[in-house]
Specification:
Chain lengths: 113, 114
């Protein structure tokens, strides 16, 4: 296993369109995290999964955002009716245990025009 | 005031210089992470520490839990060290549990000139 992967790496979409990103964590990791990073800022927590259960959602995650991890392996993050303010880098990380080191994917850069 | 504050925000150094980046936090934490981010977005974990000091090659990280402060030091800096360095803390939920959510500082942009 070569680490956390994310697809696509870049996404350009028009305002109002829906987009979906995928994250494949390291295979034995049962914790998965989504973060969002805007230009010049540090990442911000969006949501967290332990296996298939979504245990925490940030207030940043409006009702246009939904995340799933149906079989406790890969995860998807969907943004409906995208807005220009959604333009950011979306980062996924995984860890083996709650207190363990988090391994980050390369991110998906979203640009909403 | 942010829960995690880093200083400086920008740092320029000449190759070979000793570099220090500081991180202060205002919440109780179970661990502190130092991360490195290169242009293009990829984040690499450098250290995870909850007390004392850790060293890896030319990098040293220290933490003072009582003072809620951590430092990242780079000895004999090199242009390839140029990156954004991010401090992140893992805080406790009410009741003392900690599920791994990280709160990040805004990052320190380091540029090392040859």
């Amino acid at each position: 296993d070569t680490g956390v992967s994310q697809n696509p790496r870049h996404k350009i979409t028009k305002r109002g369109q829906n987009v979906t990103f995928r994250c494949d964590p390291i295979s034995e990791h049962n914790r998965l995290y989504w973060y969002r990073q805007t230009l010049g800022q540090g990442p911000e927590f969006l949501t967290y999964f332990q296996n298939e259960a979504q245990l925490e959602k940030s207030r940043l995650l409006s009702d246009r955002f939904s995340a799933e991890r149906p079989k406790g392996s890969f995860s998807t993050l969907e943004i409906q009716r995208t807005e220009q303010g959604d333009s950011a880098m979306y980062l996924c990380a995984s860890s083996l245990e709650t207190g363990g080191e988090q391994y980050f994917g390369p991110g998906t850069r979203l640009t909403v025009t | 005031k942010n829960e995690v504050e880093q200083s400086p925000q920008n740092l320029t150094a000449q190759e070979g210089e000793f570099i220090t980046i500081n991180c202060s936090y205002s919440v109780g934490i179970s661990a502190l992470h130092w991360l490195q981010q290169h242009p293009g977005g990829g984040i690499v974990s450098l250290f995870m520490l909850s007390s004392g000091k850790k060293k890896h090659g030319r990098l040293i990280a220290t933490i003072n839990i009582q003072e809620k402060h951590s430092s990242l030091h780079i000895t004999a800096s090199h242009p390839r060290d140029s990156a954004v360095y991010i401090c992140a803390v893992r805080s406790y939920l009410t009741g003392g549990t900690s599920y791994g959510k990280l709160t990040f500082g805004q990052g320190t942009i380091l540029t090392v000139h040859p």
